[in-house]
Structures are given as C-alpha cells and as structure tokens.
Design goal:
CATH class of the largest domain: Mainly Alpha
Radius of gyration: 24 Å
CATH architecture of the largest domain: Orthogonal Bundle
Strand content: 15-25%
Largest sheet: 5 strands, antiparallel
Helix content: 25-40%
CATH topology of the largest domain: Arc Repressor Mutant, subunit A
Length: 322
C-alpha cells in the first residue's frame, strides 16, 4: 500500500535519484504503477517528476536535462526522457571525474556488500579514464556519524540491541541500552526509535547524540504503543506547551522538536512546541543566537530570563515568602 506521508530531506533526494533512473529505462509508466512500485502516493510521484523535469545542473539550465510529456501526465501517464542536448555522452574533466569517484568512495562504505559490487564497477570505469590515481585532487572519507549510521542500520536490520553513551538535550551524559526498531531521517538529522532498556519505555534518540555505539545480542520484537508512529518527539502529559517565534536561521529547532510542522517562505514563524523541562529552555534558545524568542507562557519566559541572568552573573535568588 502506498505511503501517505510525504518524503523529505535525504529520503526525498534518494527517492528522486531512483525514480529518475527508473523512468529513463521505463518510458510511459502509469502513475498508479509507479506509486505502487516505489510505495509512495501518486501525488508524491507527480510532484517528483515535475521537479526532476525542471532541474538544472552546472552548464545545463532547467528544461535542458530532461523532457517531461505534460500532455501524458494529465492522463496519469509519466514519460520522462533525456533532453536532446544530452544525446551525446558528456566529457568529464579530471576534477569532475574525481568528484564523482570521491562520492562513490564515500557511498561504498555505507551500503550493503551486494551493492558495493556495482559501485566498485563504476569506480573501475572512472579509473580507466584517468592516467594516474595521483591526478585525483581530493578524496572524501566517511565521518564518525556515517559509521554510526551504518552500525545502527545493521542493528535495526538484524534486530540486535545496542549500547551507547547518550547526550540528552540538557547536555547530560548517560549510558543507554536500546532495542532499535526504526531509523528515520528528518531534514538533516537521523533519529532512532526503539525501546530503552535503561528507562524501560519507548524513546526516540538523535543519532548525532549517540557515542561509542556497540552491538549486542538479538532481541525479540516487542509491541510498542506510540500512537501512529509519525511523531519523532513524543509529547507527555507533564510537558509545557511553549510558543516560540523562530527566524529562518533557527528552523533547525522546529526540525528537532516538531518536524511535521510545515515551513515555507523566508520570514519568522510562530510555532507551539511541548517542552518537558523548562529548566532546559534557556540552553535550547541560546544555541540560536537571538534567532529564537519565547513568547508564552510566562513561566517559560522566566526560565529563559533566569538562564540569561545566570550566564551574565547577574542572577540573584528570589526572596522566600514567610
């Protein structure tokens, strides 16, 4: 059954790459069949092919890379082809070939062994076009985060528990033992949803806050009641709903705490986010250098004000009523 939720971030980028390759090899595909094949909605397919047809890269302007038959699209038939300007195979400079090779070398460390064969074949083809590997001006290597991503992906695929040290939003470090059940991306962040053996409840963890990840034994899948599963940040009854005004430079705050909130335009937006501990609010807001303001409630504004006063050394304890 096609997914109802729209894709975003890296998921949408990877989906569009796969869709482009598929459509070039399979002309005049029914929209319904494409939605079934890629397990997304027909609306997502239509939006993606229009975006692809308007893409421009380097010397190629929009409409010069691909041709989309809009008449057929109105009949729910997708026909995407290379534009005439790309009928001839483009020549690559040494630097361009090196950039592609570097990207492939980056990917080969992250994919499954069966997929590494195809990437290595492409690297060999690029290598034949170079006089010497010394001509490659740079090489991209996976970072620690990429290795962690591959490790967690393996844990989810093999139903293996993992242990790590975790830094929460307050900056506190603790050891966690987790049964990961889902790995998903929202914008530029990766999140791990699973059962935390340490706290004995379902939790969501940010991958970039996980350190020293090690795989443990396999575990029996358990039923986790977490609503419809679409929310990254799980709201509790004790949380305080805080009204923020967020400038575009700080939209990362919304991506962290309320990724389902749609953002459009280049102006400030107001959004309500449930915060578990108001004591952490000052530290959260301070990360964005004045680009986030707390509007309500007063208790949240006071928490931020007290944090700022302590940071400036101006905080004085409030008088205690007798």
């Amino acid at each position: 059954m096609p997914k109802s939720a729209s894709l975003s971030g890296a998921d949408r980028y990877n989906f569009m790459l796969a869709l482009t390759g598929y459509l070039i090899s399979h002309r005049q595909q029914p929209l319904s069949e494409l939605a079934k094949h890629f397990q997304v909605s027909e609306k997502e397919i239509k939006s993606a092919v229009v975006t692809i047809s308007l893409s421009g890269v380097g010397m190629y302007r929009p409409d010069e890379l691909f041709f989309l038959d809009y008449d057929l699209l109105e009949e729910d038939i997708v026909d995407l082809s290379f534009a005439p300007t790309l009928e001839a195979v483009p020549r690559l400079s040494t630097r361009q070939a090196a950039a592609i090779a570097s990207g492939l070398a980056y990917l080969v460390e992250l994919v499954e062994p069966q997929d590494q064969v195809h990437i290595n074949e492409l690297l060999e083809i690029l290598g034949k076009g170079a006089l010497s590997t010394k001509e490659l001006p740079f090489m991209v290597q996976p970072t620690r985060g990429d290795g962690d991503l591959a490790l967690v992906r393996q844990a989810v695929a093999e139903s293996r528990a993992l242990v790590c040290s975790y830094i929460n939003s307050s900056g506190e470090v603790s050891n966690r033992e987790i049964e990961p059940q889902l790995l998903e991306s929202r914008e530029s962040n990766w999140f791990v949803r699973g059962f935390c053996r340490t706290n004995k409840e379902s939790r969501v963890f940010r991958l970039d806050r996980m350190r020293e990840i090690k795989l443990l034994e396999t575990f029996e899948e358990r039923t986790v009641s977490s609503g419809d599963g679409s929310e990254i940040y799980q709201v509790r009854e004790t949380d305080t709903e805080v009204l923020f005004e967020v400038e575009p430079e700080a939209f990362g705050l919304i991506a962290d705490y309320k990724p389902e909130h749609e953002i459009s335009g280049n102006s400030a937006v107001q959004v309500k986010i449930a915060i578990g501990e108001l004591e952490t609010l000052g530290r959260i807001v301070s990360r964005y250098s004045g680009k986030v303001r707390v509007l309500a409630p007063e208790s949240a504004r006071k928490a931020v004000r007290d944090f700022a006063q302590r940071a400036l050394g101006h905080h004085k304890p409030e008088p205690q009523a007798e």
